[in-house]
């Protein structure tokens, strides 16, 4: 068996056929749909959500996952935080000539495993092979489709004293990837937090009708995500420095490298704005899950109908304004 990707794997001939049959269809299934140029989907509701994303992470494999798992989790989470139930995913691969087929199989297998956990189906895909040096190993593009089966969240109803909740520690993914690259002498056993969040979002929406907004704070981290919310919906949010959940490994790495965990990427954390009345109810639901057991309230909405701003309340009582991430802190993070 050929162990490396060649340009012939992308020319639509015999090798391309073997790659698609032996790696993708065998792992993902849906042999009947593979006979068509497009997947036929059965959508029970008319209100759909759709999201597309590309994944170029370096390195391809890291503690807690790989580019394949990340692609599924990232797409599932984009749909889930919109209040949708993810149903279908399409996947396109751009593969560099010379890429290891056994490694490709590991990536595809992890995608199939994560899709099964998240109860979504991979229904369509494409494969392109490019010359050596044209991409860095493998890039993946996905599109996800979900359905809205609850009342839509209404961000315009964000009110003063609504609370800001995070489902767990921040910055894990960013520091894990930096360590995996072997850059700057950073060595840590920290796993990426890469995980699908749709079970969490579904349970939260089942118990609370006062969830105003959900986001997954990936690139740019929690701070950038909250700044965008503040500016888009004209609210002022204040988060508390002493309430931020940060692992010792992340805090130590940030101290050494001069990073701020608020701006580091996460790939398995849920950020919520919830009415004060439902704070304890939502926290209790999140803590039922392994990936939500460290959920905590980190701040509140202090003003509405203002020029949107985000503030960090420091340990000594002063306030510091937070802005979007400026510049490029960690490239190729997802």
Automatic annotation (TrEMBL):
Domain PurM-like N-terminal: start-end pairs: 37-148
Record Pfam families: AIRS, AIRS_C
Domain PurM-like C-terminal: 162-304
A GO biological-process term: protein maturation
Similarity annotation: Belongs to the HypE family.
Name of this protein: Hydrogenase expression/formation protein HypE
Naturally occurring in which organism (per UniProt): Anaerobacillus arseniciselenatis
Species classification: Bacteria, Bacillati, Bacillota, Bacilli, Bacillales
């Amino acid at each position: 068996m050929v162990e490396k990707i060649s340009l012939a794997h992308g020319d639509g001939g015999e090798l391309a056929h073997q790659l698609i049959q032996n790696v993708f269809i065998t792992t993902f299934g849906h042999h009947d749909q593979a006979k068509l140029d497009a997947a036929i989907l059965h959508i029970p509701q008319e209100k759909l959500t759709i999201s597309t994303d590309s994944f170029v992470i370096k390195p391809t494999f890291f503690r807690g996952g790989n580019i394949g798992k990340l692609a599924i989790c990232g797409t599932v989470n984009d749909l889930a935080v919109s209040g949708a139930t993810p149903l279908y995913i399409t996947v396109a691969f751009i593969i560099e000539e010379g890429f290891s087929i056994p490694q490709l199989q590991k990536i595809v297998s992890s995608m199939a495993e994560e899709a099964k956990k998240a109860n979504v189906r991979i229904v369509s895909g494409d494969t392109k092979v490019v010359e050596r040096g044209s991409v860095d190993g493998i890039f993946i593009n996905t599109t996800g489709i979900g359905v809205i089966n609850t009342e839509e969240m209404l961000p315009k109803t964000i009110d003063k004293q609504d609370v800001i909740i995070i489902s767990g520690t921040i910055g894990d993914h960013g520091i894990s990837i930096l360590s995996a690259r072997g850059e700057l002498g950073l060595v840590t056993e920290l796993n990426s937090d890469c995980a699908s969040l749709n079970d969490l979002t579904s349970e939260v929406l089942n118990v609370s009708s006062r969830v105003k907004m959900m986001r997954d704070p990936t690139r740019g981290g929690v701070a950038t995500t909250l700044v965008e919310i503040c500016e888009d919906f004209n609210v002022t949010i204040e988060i508390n420095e002493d309430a931020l959940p940060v692992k010792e490994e992340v805090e130590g790495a940030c101290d050494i490298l001069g990073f701020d965990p608020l701006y580091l990427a996460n790939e398995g954390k849920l950020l919520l704005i919830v009415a004060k009345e439902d704070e304890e109810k939502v926290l209790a639901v999140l803590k039922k899950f392994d990936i939500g057991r460290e959920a905590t309230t980190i701040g509140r909405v202090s003003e509405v109908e203002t020029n949107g701003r985000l503030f960090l309340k420091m340990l000594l009582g002063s306030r510091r304004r937070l802005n979007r991430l400026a510049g490029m802190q960690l490239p190729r993070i997802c």
